[in-house]
Amino acid sequence: MEYQNALSKLASAFGDQLTTVKSVRETHGQGEGHQKNCPPDAVLFAISTEDVATAVRICAAHKMPIIPYGAGSSLEGHVSAPKGGLSINLSKMNKVLALNALDMDVRIEPGITRKQLNQHLRDQGLFFPVDPGADATIGGMVATRASGTNAVKYGTMREQILSLKVVTPTGTIIETGTRAKKSAAGYDLTHLYCGSEGTLGIITEATLKLHPIPEKIAAGVCCFPDLESAINTVISVMQSGIGISRIELLDVLSIKAVNGYSKTNHKEAATLFLEFSGTNAAVAEQIETCKAIANDFNGADIEFAENQEAINKLWHARHQLYYATRALAPGKESITTDVCVPISQLADCMLETREDLTSSGLVATMLGHVGDGNFHTIILFDADAADEIAQVTELSEGMAKRAIAMGGTCTGEHGIGCGKQTYLEWERGNAVDIMRSVKTALDPDNIMNPGKIFRG
Fold first, then answer.
1. Measured torsion, CA atoms of residues 323, 329, 330, 331, in degrees rounded to the nearest 10
2. Mean pLDDT of the region 276-296
């Protein structure tokens, strides 16, 4: 009855912007991960910060859960509504509010996607570098502290944010920073909300740093006789100080999957996908240095593309690996793992993981944003087979424990959501109690995306 009162007030306030249609609710109850679909009681399509603030105040008065929703591309159950409540869809809030080309910053609404933003910026000679693969919304990328293929050169979302506008659990609207490139004014609220996964408030605007579009970009592939040779090449490239933009590693099965799905003809071997950017002279020097290092580790079939169409085709195939892996065993469910370790530990971590995957007998591909020690596996399993579910759980837990033991983390970019709460406790120990204290202080009624990050 309490939620019905809230829904009635929401309907009066928003009219057609609010829906309780079952199919829409179910769409908003699950991202792209394997978690159970938990639909909200209603979905609000917000069009302004004031909409969000009004909805939050109504929900807060009735202690009704609130779940922010962007593109639904998250993998750890961030958008599910295990306690019901209101899903606030921010995709219609997709405007560029202010572009300051001279200062290289931009103010945007959270529903704009990274591709939409870069399309808007293209004529200014600027771009936003964070590329998690999916065309996610910027708000969702801030909330999950996303990164991706460009992080090795440009950093993650954390490094790109200057300020956020946030609606707090009471419906208050706050600004966390300024357009200045640095500040020592009080607590760093901007980065408190970055990575908070919607559990502390709802991001309704963001001011972001931008970067000049490089004079030249060149991308290429290089094959290796085994994973260890490829990883050792990565370590040497990073230690050499080459200004590489992206360096991705796909194992043999990944290449086979990509070839089948994207109709490419890459050699089926452990393969590095590389991208260099900068001036013409710098890129040429970087390529030659990288080739020399790769040759030291028996790299072969080194091919580079320098026109944008060929580069886009190369990276498009790489970004399709999730769907390519699913195509290896149609009808199977999938889980995507995500760990990050110091680069000196990368070879051991990936090789031991590959051994575990092979021993399990399950179909699983492996890829890595290896320049910063982050890698994933995509494991396929039969959701109706208890033994396969148990194997997947064992593999995922084993990866997390191994990464943590090596000084790494259980998630380099996907976040905790409702899928890695135990892993967070393994990694952070008593520090999780401090996180809970922050959550309780800001959201005492636990209405902001409950069931995420923390157990219980």
1. -110
2. 93
d(CA 233, CA 269): 15
- Cβ atoms of residues 230 and 249 within 8 Å: yes
Alpha helices by DSSP H, listed for 122-251, are 138-143, 151-154, 189-193, 227-240
- Nearest CA to 445 out of 87, 166, 64 is that of 64
- Do the beta carbons of residue 304 and residue 220 sit within 8 Å? yes
- Rounded average pLDDT over 195-211: 98
What tens digit of pLDDT does each residue of 350-368 get?
999 999 999 999 999 999 9
> Residue 416 and residue 83: Cα distance in Å, rounded?
18
Token couple for 190: 């901007």
Domains and CATH numbers, the chain: 2-89 (3.30.43.10), 96-212 (3.30.465.10), 216-322 (3.30.70.2190), 324-419 (3.30.70.2740)
Q: Are the CB atoms for 176 and 187 separated by under 8 Å?
A: no
Q: Give the number of other CB atoms < 10 A from CB of residue 168.
A: 18
Kind of pairing between the strands at 86-89 and 42-45: parallel
pLDDT of 95 higher than 60: yes
For residue 136, how far is the Cα from the chain centroid?
8
CA nearest neighbour of 231 among 298, 315, 303 = 298
Q: Are strands 161-167 and 202-209 parallel, antiparallel or unpaired?
A: antiparallel
Phi, psi of 208 (to 5 degrees): -125, 150
Instruction: Round to whole Å and give the CA distance between 27 and 75.
Output: 14
Among candidates 260, 259, 187, 209, which has minimal Cα distance to 104? 209
Helix (H, G, I), strand (E, B) or coil at 182: coil
Q: Tell me the backbone φ, ψ of residue 5, rounded to 5 degrees.
A: -65, -40
Rounded distance, CA 242 to CA 286, Å? 6
- 81 burial (CB, 10 Å; 0-12 / 13-18 / 19+) is buried
pLDDT tens digits, 294-335? 999 999 878 887 777 877 777 777 778 989 999 999 999 999
